[in-house]
Amino acid sequence: MVVEDHSVSHESFAIVQCAGCGLLLTNPRPDAEHIGRYYESEDYVSHSDTNKGLTNRLYQLARVYTLRRKVSLVNKQAPRRGRLLDYGCGTGHFLAACQQAGWQVAGVEPSPVARAQAQQRTGQPISAADLSELAPESFDAITLWHVLEHVHELNATLKQLVRLLKPDGVLIIAVPNADSPDAQYYREQWAAYDVPRHLYHFTPATLGKLLRKHHVPVRQTLPLMLDAYYVSLLSERYRAERNAGLLAAFKAGYHSNRQAAQHGGQYSSLIYVAAKAAK
């Protein structure tokens, strides 16, 4: 399958599958030195607080609801409200919400613009990328909200994150699901492929296998229900080469969630709650 970068470059990239593990990958994948230019757009909303355009306004409105749900989820899954690391924290809204809920927070964010906003929002220093300077087994919860698919050094990063997690801590990862009904419906126009910023395209099977490899098996999988609507809105815009049809996007999102509920929980995006395996 060949997918266009609709957001920035309009270049085309192939989605290929690893013959060994089944993981879907973007090909070619720009290296860390050259990927930056593919993020240079106000359309990349996780690095921006803009309200310009329908998509951005809907994203900002949905953020209020999803922040509450994310904080509630972490409070429920973590062993205590201690230290939390948000890897790829963007502009820091989630970290600020966790602070208000009683967490001690730390963040990692490679984008200098987003990092500056996160530091201002939380009053905490935000690291650019380096995890090696952090003490082992020092976090009760580590979160990655739609971040793992962007990480170049996938195995090395997961190894470091597991090192930082306390023995009873939780690792919470949210990623798009390439096996979802909306992915099958929109195919190469599925917005959650988001090439080449998304280097990998996970399914429950491939992410589960990857986390077991790093000795943090999945203990629960949960849906991100609003993502089906948001992704369908973008996908309609890409498919039609014009402003998205709200009704068509709503119908596609609704049918995706309904099919997922009826057939195996394959929602548009999934949250994986993982913990260290008992020794």
CATH homologous superfamily descriptor: Vaccinia Virus protein VP39
Secondary-structure-derived class:
alpha/beta
Radius of gyration: 18 Å
- CATH topology title: Rossmann fold
What does the overall shape look like? globular
How many domain modules?
Answer: 1
Q: What's the total count of β strands?
A: 11
The quaternary structure here is single chain
Q: State the share of residues found in helices, binned by percent.
A: 25-40%
Explain this structure to me?
The chain is of the alpha/beta class and 279 residues long. The protein contains 8 helices and 11 strands. It has a 7-stranded mixed beta sheet, with helices on both faces. A 4-stranded antiparallel beta sheet has the order 1-2-3-9, with no helix packed on it. Strand 4 (83-87), helix 2 (93-100) and strand 5 form a beta-alpha-beta unit. It is globular and about 50 Å long. The mean pLDDT is 91.
Please outline what is shown here:
The chain is α/β, with parallel strands linked by helices. The chain has eight helices and eleven strands.
Topology diagram in text:
Layout: E1 2-4, E2 12-17, E3 24-27, H1 54-77, E4 83-87, H2 93-100, E5 104-108, H3 112-122, E6 126-127, E7 139-145, H4 154-164, E8 165-176, H5 181-186, E9 200-201, H6 204-213, E10 218-223, H7 225-240, H8 246-262, E11 269-275
Parallel strand pairs: 4-5, 4-7, 5-6, 7-8
Antiparallel strand pairs: 1-2, 2-3, 3-9, 8-11, 10-11
Helix pairs in contact: 1-2, 1-7, 7-8
